[in-house]
Design brief:
about 25% helix; alpha+beta; Bit1; 3-stranded antiparallel sheet; peptidyl-tRNA hydrolase
Length: about 190
């Protein structure tokens, strides 16, 4: 399906990109702006240096603001934890869907957080890091959720309704050094 040409309109310094979609629909995309809470690599080449309204290409590394001690070049990662007992008893597609629900819900809930903005930035979309792990069952999943809650690690425990079954959880994107220790004893989901 071919899209018609993209139009650029600018008002002062904030251009808006409008793309005409089939059936006469339009999609308006607001410009990306540099955010003061993000820090970018000093080693970027001149072609990588951002101009006003364009994100730098090095935004996938986190270097510093907010709580915790993320080191420079500390990759942003989202952890997704599934239940092994469901993987063994439910159709695979259903379990994958549960993980997708939790992941999207965690990102959407924390969409304004600097780490989530960096994780979802245009320059990071092709470089996202997600780690999918497993726990044995519901008890272990609830225990992990409580442990994360006690440590103020923001996450989404996905409850399948109307059955009220906790199926998985996902963190919001974090610098790996801040959250990896909570997941080091869990197995990769296979």
């Amino acid at each position: 399906m071919l899209l018609s040409p993209t139009l650029r309109f600018s008002k002062l310094t904030a251009p808006i990109i409008i793309t005409k979609l089939p059936l006469g629909l339009f999609f308006a995309k607001p410009p990306l702006t540099r955010r003061p809470h993000m820090s970018y690599s000093a080693n970027a080449s001149p072609s990588d240096q951002a101009t006003v309204g364009e994100p730098p290409s090095q935004s996938r590394t986190y270097s510093g603001s907010g709580s915790g001690g993320g080191s420079s070049d500390d990759v942003l990662v989202q952890y997704v934890v599934l239940r092994r007992d469901l993987i063994d008893t439910w159709p695979l597609g259903s379990v994958v869907t549960q993980g997708c629900h939790a992941s999207v819900a965690a990102v959407w809930t924390h969409r304004d957080h600097p780490d989530t903005l960096g994780y979802c930035s245009d320059s990071n979309l092709d470089h996202m890091h997600k780690v999918t792990l497993e726990v044995k069952g519901e008890t272990q999943l609830k225990n992990l959720a409580e442990k994360l809650e006690a440590a103020s690690i923001q996450h989404k425990l996905w409850i399948e309704l109307p059955e009220n079954i906790p199926t998985c959880l996902a963190t919001r994107p974090y610098p790996k050094s801040q959250v990896a220790s909570f997941f080091k004893k869990l197995k990769l989901c296979k």
